[in-house]
User: Fold these one by one.
Assistant:
Number 1:
Amino acid sequence: MTRRTVITGVGAIAPTGIGIDLVWKAAREGLCAIAPLTRYDPRGTPLALAGEIRGFEPLEHLEGRIVAQTDRFTHLALAASDMALRDAALSPAELPPYSFGVVTASCAGGVEFGQQEIQRLWSKGPRHVGPYQSIAWFYAASTGQISLRHGLKGPSGVLVTDEAGGLDAVAYARREIGRGATAMLAGGAEAPLSPFSMACQFGHGLLSAERDARRGYLPFTARAPGFVPAEGGAMIVLEEAGAALARDAEPQAEVLGHGTTFTGARRFGPSAEGLAAAARIALAEAGVGRHEVDVVFADALGVPEADAAEVAALRAVFGARLRSVPVTAPKSGTGRAYSGAAALDVALAVRGLRHGVIPPTPRVGTTDPALHDLNLVTGRARTVPVRTALLLSRGLAGNNSALVLGRSPSQGETS
Amino acid sequence: MTTGTPLTYETLATLVEQCAGVALRPAELADPEAVFKDLGVDSLGTLGIVAELENRLGVQLGKDAEEAAAPGELLAIVNRRLAEEAGAPTGTPKGA
């Protein structure tokens, strides 16, 4: 691809904070925001813990009209998009029409809004279902609302590829920039913490039923009890490198390569081979050798079989060098926000590349990773030169995704 | 609010905020130049307001109400309908 894609802005909202500065600070310090679920009364259900965003008042970020029309997942995506544009110091109006597009990934859609309207339907009747149900529940709602808000008329799309969608959206944006777009907003935000949504997930048996927050989500450990669901996500501004340079924008990172494979729903064993293949495809596209990878942001499902498969994938990619490659999973401090989780990883990786810091895997002890022979970053952040980051993510339907980010060419060795 | 009392701009303002999320003063709605679209109330918002009125009043307001472009127009349609329900002679009520 001759047109290069750089990241010039990041907006993030997570259980650990509102805004990338707070989210990064918490990740760097290894803070954990997983706590007892309060969004609804979970008594009588297997789920007791969640990664909830606290203190997010939609009306502080958005007009009342938009708040009434859309679900919480869109509130989060719109607010994160505004933050990302501010971070990039980019006003979409500056760009030619049709050159700026948007792509979001969503797994849950507007499920909280949808549940509220279904309750009205069954308790009061069809005449009590509000007309905004027609647009608020939809997976594409965030892409549409971001496009309307900023007048983005360029390439647009929505990806429903579960957690991996957070990486796939960035790759989609890079592809559109390669094909001629000047800039893209890409990422994902989710708000899946409604009883209906969570009940739909008990069946797959991967949600953590742990009641003690300290033991709720412990990826790569022998006692991993599954994953804790979360809300939140990130939106990223991507620009064609030349266009970013022309407006004196400061590139924060470069998107170098991406790969995806499919190994079948709930078949974690084969995901080892699939993840390894996705990583090799991404590294090949990036033109980056495996010895050049400075950090891996792991999928870290928190289910022993899936974690073992991920370690096997890393062993296949890195061979004997695996022990020297730092691996981290900051999401053990937030829970998994579905498509938003991988988008948050992208936001954190961008900060890590800028500052030469690898955030730790919260709550996972130093002795735990020995089980998997991983160089897992635990306890405290590591300050090391980080030039290239490999991000991995899996969807529960069996899709495996890998993204390679590089330090922006204009950046020095340290910052 | 019952079928016996006409719809006022005060009540309409409450409904607009509740159903469409737009906070407006009754005077803004009463402005003869006021148009829903310019006030930030889109067509789905109007649909929601009309549905809520129908639920509260227990009357059908019809397509004209759902497609009303202006608050004054909606108010007139609703009050005409309420007058019909009350058995009053049909016609455009004064000041609607």
Number 2:
Amino acid sequence: MEKNMFHESVNQIEVPEDDVLKAIKAGVSKGNKIKAKQKPRFKVIGASVAAAAVLFVASGFMVPSVGNVMADIPFLAKLYEHDKVAGNLASQQLITELNEKAAFDGIDVTVTEAYYDGAIIGVTFDVKGEVKGNEEEIYAFYEIFDRDPNIEETMELVKLVPSESGYKGHVQLSYPRAELPSESTLPFNIIGIGEINDSWKDEQGKWNFDVPISQLPFETAELGQESELGDYKITFEKLITGKSSTAIEYTLSYPEAGQRVMLDLFDDKGKQIIGGNSDSKLERKTDRGIVTEKRRITIPKVPDSDFIEVQPAIDAGEKLDSVKIDL
Amino acid sequence: MKEAKLVKKAIKGNAKAFEELLILHSERLYRTAYLYAGNREDALDIVQETSCKAFLAIGQLKNEQYFLTWLTRILIHCAYDVLKRRKKETPVEKLVDLPSSNDHKVADNLDLMEAITQLKEQHRTAIILFYYHDLPISEIARTMDAPENTVKTYLQRGRKELKTRLGGEHDGKEYVS
């Protein structure tokens, strides 16, 4: 067998470029999350939830099965206390109360609250019944949007908080599609409840919900501001201001073999806006070597600021002109 | 940006630099994964797992110049994992994607791909690294954590297996010293 012939054969394997890029990005992002979870989290979370975080971090290293699952699944232990949007909306009495029930294997799950503010969705549920495991280490593993492969993360674990009658769970996610329908349902299926089980990721939903979600009133402002550097171009299209969250939609175009562009956000006092922001891709097209992505940054609050200053930079360090978006 | 620079940045924990690096080598990663998996879905799975595991371990890479060898080794381990998982589910023969084309050349190449996906794990690794990655025996030995003579044996046996499966028609010059 000759090398040339082998190469020729192998080079005929068609490479699905977009899917390979997606696989790489998904892998790195998963690795990044696992890394983040391995770092002490005291600095970024409030004292009231520090104890829970310590338990969670420690359990990841001490119990092998937890460690294994953590290596495979994005882990977002979002306790209700973390969710500023929910807190703000609750104080404004804007969260829809629900009473959607599902029962399986002696455990009842009731979806109790849902909100949909601008670009962020939140769901709260109660768990009652024969939940197995240590009360401080109870998890729910759920899937959203029927594991749609076009959405980056569709399976997550959430740590449940003991309540008077059982446990309470709360999830929050950025709406991953471009359109923001006024009325929608969120396919939300819980696969496992209790001690983390490795087999969960191969199982189907047992407590299945179509959570009705009404879009809270939000305002959209057209922006049309641009920043450009060589082949890199960012157009800020829209500002979405919800009752308790803010989102900026933008279009980014860059050469296919080019570098990534990072956006840093600052308030009118020059203070960086960080904590819970998400920057998600809504669409991606490649035409003659130029990639065009429609993206949305979601900030889980309405900043107390006259404007948001966006500072784009290419990975190599070169900066594009910053843009001020009036709030 | 030069690759060496990216590797340095990646070792320091820069996720974007690391991603750039993988993108630079994406075709080779995917095609190597495909040689193990024989189908697109599993190959993509292998690429994703490799990206995750390599990112978690990049801080431990001591010698920048061996980045690609190191990455390939991770990919091979991930490929073995996927193969193991799959063995429990479906016979390997059924997993090679079949082409719709009747083109004779494509069919020939497919035979080769299919034959490779049926080789024993170590033989397959030696063959892929030697013929596709163009690595010298010493480097293959490093990647596979095996003595050079063992690698030569793997190559000889792998070639023999391939020859049997392909009916001997693709045999040509010997390159192994």
